[in-house]
Design goal:
The longest helix has 20 residues. The chain has 13 helices and twelve strands. Helix 5 runs parallel beside helix 6 and helix 6 crosses helix 13. It is globular and about 65 Å long. The termini are far apart. The chain is of the alpha/beta class and 428 residues long. The chain has an eight-stranded mixed beta sheet with strand order 5-6-8-7-9-12-10-11, with helices on both faces. Strand 5 and strand 6 form a beta hairpin. Extracellular metalloprotease that contributes to pathogenicity. Belongs to the peptidase M14 family. GO terms for molecular function: metallocarboxypeptidase activity; zinc ion binding. InterPro entries: CARBOXYPEPT_ZN_1, CARBOXYPEPT_ZN_2, M14A-like_propep, M14A_act_pep, Peptidase_M14.
C-alpha cells in the first residue's frame, strides 16, 4: 500500500469518527463538506459547469444552484473526500473563480437544528421551522378557527402513506369562484417554502382588510403547504439535504424521484436525469409518483376554474414563468412579464425589506429543465397565469435560512402573491 493511500485511509478513519460523534442521531453526515460559490465568466466556463452537473448530482457533488445562461453564480456542496480537491483543482486550472460560502456544512446544519430546540418565547408560531406533524396540527387548528373561510382536505396519500393535505380559502364557500393553486415543499430540503405557505394560509384566513377581501372576492385560493411529505419528514430525522421523495426505484439502491421533474409535459428531456441516483431523477415514467398523480388528478378535475398557479421554492430570489424546457417564448410572454414586474415591485416596496427579486421566463434566467410543474400547468392544463418563485436568500445561507429570516421572507412572498392575483385579468 502506498504512503499516500495509507494517509488517505487514515484521514478517512478520523473523518468517519468525527462524523459519528457529530452526527450520531442522523444517517447522513456533512462534517467537512464545503459549499463553494463558482463564478463563471465565459461560455466555456458555463459549459464546464454544465458538464460537471451532468456527471455528478449526489451528496458528494451537490449543485445547490444550477448553471444558467446568465452566467449567474453557481453554488456547489462538495464532500471532504476527493471531490473537493478534484473539483476545486479543475476550476483553478481552468481559471474559474470560486469562494467558500459555507466552510463546514454540518456545523451550519447543527446551528439550525439547535435553533429549533431552543426553549424560548416565540413571537408567533411562524418564526420557527416545524415538523410535518406540527404543520398539519396548525393547519387543522386554522381550519377549525376560521371554518367560515377555510376548508381542509386531502388529495390522497404519499408513497409512504402520509396524507397530502391542503386548504381551500374562500370568502363565500357556497359559491365556487375561479381558483388559484399554490404549493410549497416539493423539494424536501427547502424548509422556508412550507414555512412561507403556512404564513400565507394564516394571512388569508385571519385578515379582514380590504386587500384580502378583494383577493377572496376575486378567486378561491387552494394552498398545499408540503407537497413532498415523505421527503420533508426524512430531512428532519435522517438527511437535512435530501431533495427527492422516498419512493423505491426497482433495480437501483438509490431512492427517490425529483417530484419537479416527473410531470407529464416535456418529461424526460433536457434538464432532468435518467439516473436514479441523481437528485434530478425524473422517475421511471411521466407521472409515475403517487404524490404527482394525486395532485394532478385534482387539478385536472377543476377544468377552466383553475386560473392561476404558483410553485414556491428556495433559494435565489427569482420570480419566473414558463417555459422551462425550451428557450422558445411562451405565448403569453408579454402579459406574464407585466404581472411579474408588478410582483417583484411589490416584494421590494411593500414587503418592507427592500429585497430585490429577478424575474422573467424560467429558461432565460435560470436553466433548461423538463417535466416541471409550471410547464405542465401552462402547457397541459393551459393555465395562463402560471408562475414559480425561488425565495430568499441569494446564497449566504442557501437552504439553511435562519429562523430570523422566515417571517421577512414570508411577508415578501405574501406581498408578491397579492400583486399576482390582483393583476390577473380574468375572463367573465
Amino acid at each position: 500500500m502506498t504512503s499516500h493511500v495509507a494517509a488517505a485511509l487514515g484521514f478517512g478513519s478520523v473523518l468517519l469518527l468525527m462524523c459519528f460523534v457529530k452526527c450520531f442521531n442522523a444517517k447522513q453526515c456533512y462534517f467537512g463538506h464545503k459549499v463553494i460559490r463558482v463564478i463563471p465568466e465565459t461560455k466555456e466556463h458555463l459549459n464546464l459547469l454544465v458538464s460537471l452537473q451532468s456527471q455528478f448530482s449526489n451528496e458528494a457533488v451537490d449543485f445547490w444552484t444550477k448553471p444558467s445562461l446568465e452566467l449567474a453564480a453557481v453554488d456547489i456542496s462538495l464532500s471532504p473526500s476527493d471531490a473537493y480537491e478534484n473539483i476545486t483543482s479543475l476550476l483553478s486550472n481552468q481559471g474559474i473563480k470560486f469562494t467558500v460560502q459555507i466552510p463546514n456544512l454540518q456545523s451550519a446544519i447543527d446551528r439550525q437544528n439547535g435553533n429549533q430546540r431552543e426553549k424560548r418565547e416565540m413571537t408567533s408560531w411562524f418564526d420557527k421551522y416545524h415538523t410535518l406533524d406540527e404543520i398539519f396540527s396548525q393547519l387543522k387548528e386554522t381550519a377549525a378557527k376560521y371554518k367560515e373561510r377555510v376548508r381542509m382536505f386531502t388529495f390522497g396519500k404519499s408513497y409512504e402513506g402520509r396524507q397530502l393535505y391542503a386548504v381551500e380559502i374562500q370568502s363565500t364557500p357556497q359559491v365556487s369562484k375561479p381558483m388559484v393553486f399554490i404549493n410549497c415543499g416539493i423539494h424536501a430540503r427547502e424548509w422556508v417554502s412550507p414555512a412561507t405557505c403556512m404564513y400565507i394560509v394564516h394571512q388569508l384566513a385571519s385578515r379582514g382588510d380590504v386587500t384580502v377581501h378583494e383577493i377572496l372576492n376575486k378567486v378561491d385560493v387552494v394552498i398545499m403547504p408540503v407537497f413532498n411529505v415523505d421527503g420533508y419528514v426524512y430531512t428532519w430525522g435522517m438527511d437535512r439535504m435530501w431533495r427527492k421523495n422516498r419512493s423505491l426505484n426497482p433495480g437501483s439502491e438509490c431512492v427517490g424521484t425529483d417530484l419537479n421533474r416527473n410531470w407529464g409535459f416535456s418529461w424526460g428531456e433536457n434538464g432532468a436525469s435518467s439516473q436514479p441516483c441523481s437528485d434530478n431523477y425524473h422517475g421511471s415514467s411521466a407521472m409515475s409518483e403517487s404524490e404527482v398523480q394525486h395532485v394532478a388528478r385534482f387539478l385536472e378535475s377543476q377544468g377552466k376554474r383553475l386560473v392561476g398557479y404558483l410553485d414556491i421554492h428556495s433559494y435565489s430570489q427569482i420570480w419566473m414563468f414558463p417555459w422551462g424546457y425550451t428557450k422558445k417564448r411562451s405565448r403569453d410572454y408579454d402579459e406574464l412579464m407585466r404581472v411579474s414586474k408588478d410582483v417583484v415591485d411589490a416584494i421590494k416596496t411593500e414587503g418592507g425589506y427592500n429585497t430585490n427579486y429577478t424575474f422573467g421566463q424560467a429558461s432565460d434566467i435560470m436553466y433548461i429543465e423538463s417535466g416541471t410543474t409550471k410547464d405542465y400547468m401552462y402547457g397541459h392544463l393551459h393555465v395562463q397565469y402560471t408562475f414559480s418563485m425561488e425565495l430568499r436568500d441569494t446564497g449566504k445561507y442557501g437552504f439553511l435560512l435562519p429562523n430570523s429570516l422566515i417571517i421577512p421572507t414570508a411577508k415578501e412572498a405574501f406581498e408578491g402573491i397579492k400583486a399576482m392575483i390582483l393583476n390577473m385579468k380574468l375572463k367573465d
